[in-house]
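Tutorial, part two.
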Amino acid sequence: MTANAKVRVATVWLSGCSGCHMSFLDQDERLVDLAKKIQLVYSPIADVKEFPENVDVTLIEGAIANEEQLHMLEKVRARTKVLISLGDCAVTGNVTALRNSWRHSDQVVLERAYKEKSDLNAAIPTDVPKLLIKARPLHEAVKVDFFIPGCPPHADLINYVLTELLEGRTPKMEGKTKYG
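Running the prediction step on this input gives:
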């Protein structure tokens, strides 16, 4: 990526369970090696409020399920050189997209969660981002450069992709599900 300066890396969490971020952290001692080469500029594990400009690599976990996430994804894509779908929710929609089989799933999900299944104060909240009609994988909304599959992806595969990119190589993903 860059020869002298640290590579600017971000991670983003959309509609997912955080398992992909846990796998990122499961790189264990390899994180120390990564820390020597990268600058983590945005992440749910860092206290940064606004997604920065000029990010080299962003890994995004989770599907797009609401308007706020769609806007965030568009901002991230515009400010990132290499965008990576991290995990099956980002790659295919996975569990988040199970609601897509219902007609008007955006309405059905809220009705079931906040009215039908509630014993007290059954009401749909109005102060939450508007759900999209269907939950979607990232590549349906923006250009994605690499896909790291898995639910969650294996830490070795995440490390392989990042290491290849940091060394200026293109990761070869064909047939890889676990290890680099």
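The CA atoms of residues 51 and 72 lie 9 Å apart. In part three we will examine how such features are distributed along the chain.
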